[in-house]
């Protein structure tokens, strides 16, 4: 990877806040953000023998009508094996040592063929039981919106309210995470947010893709994401094949926490020699682990939150 390319990556994670959605249910429910490796609802085989989760949005277009990938018949180690080992190590460490974390999450997704602006929010995430609290940071049109989801609570629904203006008069709404309203304009549901989900997909997809050849893997140590030192793993499938989810993907593993804090996925170029097409990118910034979150942090009646009013 060139120095200019790495500089651009670093710059992407430090841009000012941008949020473009104006539909309340769509905005408050985009919280799916991170499982981008192959998102959707449940891990299952899809057409073309692709593994993983099905995103609600644009999938790769460059491999439509492409043939099957060549099976891996090599006797040596597959190029993905070191990446798979690192992802598995990180997942084991996360489950053993990280109970919860707070962070600023950033997403950018291609929806309906259009690449959306960056979106930012503050998040609290607990692993057991899986629980999420979200507070939208900017712009003013959405600042103050809150979302809560907790396994086994609120009849399995997510609760959300707007921050101010006319939309706030609606008050708190309850939505199924995978409902049409909650998924409007978003690729993944709130039940798939978080670095643990992302790490699981990294392992899942790596195991799938190492069945095939046509895979180039490179490691770039000492990459930085918002000041955090990371190891960047770049995976490229040079030839469009229906078995693969992406042409190029980059995963940034935090060297201290051993968790993926950034992920990018690109489609094949529209023409030979063209630039890869960004499909989705997710970044976890300002990660603070093991805050000791309790049920109160994911309770809509918490006095620090505004689920009970339109103020």
The tally of structural domains comes to 1
What's the architecture in CATH terms?
A: Clam
Contiguous uncertain segments of 5+ residues: 1-48
Fraction of residues in H or I helices? 10-25%
Defining traits:
311 residues, outer membrane lipoprotein receptor (LolB), chain A, twelve-stranded antiparallel sheet, 5 helices, 28% strand
How do the helices and strands line up, and which of them pair or pack?
Layout: H1 3-12, H2 24-28, H3 81-97, E1 100-111, E2 114-115, E3 119-126, E4 131-136, E5 146-150, E6 158-161, E7 173-175, H4 180-183, H5 195-209, E8 216-225, E9 228-236, E10 248-254, E11 260-267, E12 277-289
Antiparallel strand pairs: 1-2, 1-3, 1-12, 3-4, 4-5, 5-6, 6-7, 8-9, 9-10, 10-11, 11-12
């Amino acid at each position: 990877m060139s120095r200019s390319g790495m500089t651009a990556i670093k710059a992407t994670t430090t841009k000012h806040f941008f949020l473009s959605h104006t539909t309340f249910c769509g905005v408050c429910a985009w919280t799916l953000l991170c499982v981008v490796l192959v998102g959707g609802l449940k891990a299952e085989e899809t057409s073309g023998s692709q593994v993983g989760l099905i995103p609600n949005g644009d999938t790769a277009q460059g491999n439509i009508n492409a043939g099957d990938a060549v099976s891996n018949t090599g006797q040596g180690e597959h190029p993905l094996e070191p990446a798979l080992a690192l992802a598995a190590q990180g997942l084991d460490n996360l489950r053993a040592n990280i109970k919860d974390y707070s962070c600023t999450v950033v997403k950018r997704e291609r929806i309906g063929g259009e690449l959306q602006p960056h979106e930012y929010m503050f998040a609290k995430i607990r692993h057991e039981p899986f629980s999420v609290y979200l507070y939208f940071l900017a712009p003013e049109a959405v600042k103050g919106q809150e979302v809560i989801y907790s396994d086994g609570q609120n009849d399995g629904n997510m609760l959300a309210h707007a921050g101010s203006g006319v939309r706030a008069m609606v008050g708190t709404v309850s939505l199924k995470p995978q409902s049409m309203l909650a998924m409007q304009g978003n690729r993944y549901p709130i039940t798939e947010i978080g670095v643990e989900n992302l790490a699981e997909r990294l392992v899942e997809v790596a195991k799938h893709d190492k069945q095939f050849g046509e895979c180039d893997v490179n490691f770039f140590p000492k990459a930085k994401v918002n000041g955090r030192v990371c190891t960047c793993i770049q995976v490229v499938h040079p030839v469009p094949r229906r078995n693969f989810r992406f042409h190029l993907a980059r995963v940034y593993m935090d060297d201290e926490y051993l968790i993926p804090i950034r992920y990018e996925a690109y489609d094949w170029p529209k023409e030979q020699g063209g630039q890869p097409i960004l499909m989705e990118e997710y970044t976890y910034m300002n990660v603070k682990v093991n805050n000791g979150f309790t049920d109160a942090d994911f309770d809509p009646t918490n006095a620090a939150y505004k689920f009970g009013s339109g103020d």
